[in-house]
From TrEMBL, chain A:
This is 4Fe-4S dicluster domain-containing protein. It comes from the Bacteria. One of its GO terms (molecular function) is iron-sulfur cluster binding. Transmembrane segments: none annotated. Residues 204-236, 284-312 form the 4Fe-4S ferredoxin-type domain. Keywords: Iron, Iron-sulfur, Metal-binding. Pfam families: Fer4_22.
Automatic annotation (TrEMBL), chain B:
[2Fe-2S] cluster binds at C249, C254, C257, C265. SUPFAM superfamilies: Ferredoxin reductase-like, C-terminal NADP-linked domain (SSF52343), Riboflavin synthase domain-like (SSF63380). InterPro entries: Cbr1-like_FAD-bd_dom, Cyt_c3_hydrogenase_gsu, Dihydroorotate_DH_Fe-S-bd, FAD-bd_FR_type, Flavoprot_Pyr_Nucl_cyt_Rdtase, FNR_nucleotide-bd, OxRdtase_FAD/NAD-bd, PyrK_electron_transfer. Binds 1 [2Fe-2S] cluster per subunit. This is FAD/NAD(P)-binding protein.
From TrEMBL, chain C:
GO terms for cellular component: periplasmic space. Its main location: periplasm. Coiled coil: none annotated. It is found in: Periplasm. GO terms for molecular function: iron-sulfur cluster binding; oxidoreductase activity. This is NADH:ubiquinone oxidoreductase. Keywords: Oxidoreductase, Periplasm. It holds the Pfam family Oxidored_q6. Gene3D superfamilies: NADH:ubiquinone oxidoreductase-like, 20kDa subunit (3.40.50.700).
Amino acid sequence: MRMSWLPQGHLEAFLNLLEPYGTVHGPTVLENGVTALAPITSPDDLELKYRHTLIPPKKYLLPFRDPILTLNDGCYRPAPPVAPNLVLFGLHRCDLQAISYLDRVFLGDDPDPNYAGRRERLTLVGLSCEPDDFCYCDPAQPAAVDLFLDQAENGFLVTPHSPRGEKIMSEGTGLFLSSDHLPSLLVPLAPPPTPQDPELRFSDNPLWEEYARICLSCGACSACCPTCYCFDVREYPSLDHGGNRLREWDNCLFKKHGEVAGGDFRRSRLDRLRYRFLHKYCGFSPLQGVTSCVGCGRCAKACPVGIDLRNVLEVTYRGAEPATTRDQATGTGEVS
Amino acid sequence: MTPHGATVHVPAPAVLMERRELTGDTSLIRIAPDPSATGWLSSYIPGQFIQLSVPGAGEIPVSLADMPRQNGIIELCIRRVGHVTDRLKALVPGNRLGVRGPFGVGFPVQRMKGSPVLLLAGGLGIAPLRSLLYYLVRNREEYGEITLLYGAKEIRSMLFRDELAELALRRKLRLYLTVDFAPQGPTGDVECAVGLLPDLLKGFRFEANRTYAAVCGPPAVYRCLASELEEAGVAPERILLSLERRMCCGIGRCCHCAVGQLLCCTDGPVFPLSVLRQIPEAL
Amino acid sequence: MKRKPKLAIAGLTACSGCQLTFLNCEREIPTILDRFQVSFFPLGESSGGDDERFDAALIEGAVSTAQDLATLFALRRASRLLIAFGTCALFGGVAAMNNQLCDRAELFRSVYGREPEKDLIPPAPFTNFVAVDFSITGCPPEKTDLVALLGSLLAGTLPPTTCYPVCMECRSRENSCLLLDRDELCLGPIIQGGCNARCPATGIVCEGCRGPVSQANVAQEMELLLERGFDREDIRRRMSRFTPGWNYEQRD
């Protein structure tokens, strides 16, 4: 199989090649030391060996606070997002799989206008990674990506996964060399959680009670989760007879999440943890039987009290044999 | 089935036409949605809900209290219980509102054809059932006997008493009323039992194996009503419960309203007991 | 034209910082003054008549004197809506932080060198004394919360409430976690958000100025901070700076 090889020295030219598709954002280390996706002006800004960003790429599709309607003299109008063309460079497989999952949620029946508006202006360039102690992934899961770069010594193997990806490559023919190399991928410790038995939420695993006891309900797990998308909706009238309705990231561990006027359907923290498990690992209609966990490990890493919901799953992940193999199949798992 | 186009996401304009106070905290309002919205509102099936916007305050899910009129006017029964309904209480005819929907799965009125229907309403639960009731009454010949068992806290808080009595008088339905408390002897001009709804059901004789039961009320009564109906011999597939949950978006995205793995806004709010029995936290 | 809603803005025992938040809304003040009649605002101008009625009164501060209580009751009687404006009004704030530590009378003697005045009340949130229709937390409150309240009042309603902790906004802003990454005594997980994690964003820990978030797992935050090597007294001192009334056992 002939592959396209992008030598390390051509990276800057490659980034220039992406520019017509939008402002390039990629993994970088912010001044405060946090790894984040942010605008990239030169290859030197890029943190190519990053583990994961604190906040996943969902921030580009579902901003923390997103006005959805404007209000004027009692009439509502859509608030289309100001969505510039963007290229997200260097996304890991887990984050690309997460975008693919969010696409299923927000681009299905009655596509969400704000999400769709942003999504169509996004070009996604993936980058292979090295797994860390917190993450698991299944390269065979569908991922949303236009181009994928497999990192190797001195360069990258580049594979297009969409017409847009093909187009970008055709525009930069001089940049790519032909190569016989196969992608060299580190296979993670174990595959990510498979869809779980919903009954597990009532299992006698003592971790349920323990996690309910220690969970701070700080919201870090869902803020950092690449597939957590549930949102609160609130309306704010302004001083000039106008106003707006916005949506904002919510978290199922907050008390208000299950409340209605005069009642609460998830009174205890244990109820709320079970709800989180059910949504994350079993899926809600119509995504029943689909786990939205892509195995990035951010939740476990961000939790102040060390909760890792994967520990209540039936599969034991810790202690699984690390495997490092060359795996041709991994390159074919990407679909766009 | 959800309505098409922007009306899923953007409330269609509507105007408050009329308000009738039913009790101290509950009123029946009539609103006229913009003609652009009447088309999709006419697809309303009893038990579905709409999202009603009160400009400046926000949005609430609410079931229609009657089928939409030919001219598009819809009727809602609103109790003042929170942020949005507080504001709604202060509005006067002519004020602007917004409407999205209808959303969700209502009562299976097609499948129910030919069967007797037993409606069980507790408190404000009469409001969503009223649209089903009027649907059945207007299509009277297509259904078997229609019976309404309606329980309220006290006579004063019993909604639509006169019109229900009127329907019963015209032999459109069999009506049984009960109140939790009746401190001062007789209950007025309407015959009314004193006791809880499940107790009223206990002494009630009906053709259980052919009946569809439609239940709506405060969550507390669901469990015992469901058990009573099953014991009486109604198949769990024919016991239909309308659930309340926090439904913000109405289209299965905000994820506050899950009942087990189902979403109240898209899979419900009307669920057969046979489905809910599989979900430990449902009732 | 519709009658302009009448506002009262007043303070009890406090630093006037919350009232200053109003004056700090420079961009909005012309609109606010166009839409509202600010009829009682001792800090900003001379006060109006005693018999005045208000649509809403925004009151800051804790109650610590009989005069505070009289002002509070008078404004409650005169106002359709009473808004607890800021942390002192809601939780007692700085004025109340040492309530548990020493005797009030003794404290008065040592500071003023004379016998305490008769009307001294241990500083307490005014929500202990009157019914409150809405509250805006914060020391000082966020301008956006104040403007949202005024916008809502014009629309005949009150703003929606939120109940997420500081961490939620802090994470969303991609701040470095002061608690986990820098081992600092940060109260973010149990404090009401809405400040856009103003302090942690500049590298300063959350000191809890907005008071407890409704689902705060206080006992666990305490346990976590102890595990991370902080001294129980230091933690309590930090926590009671703005809210003396924590329930340290609260888990759910």
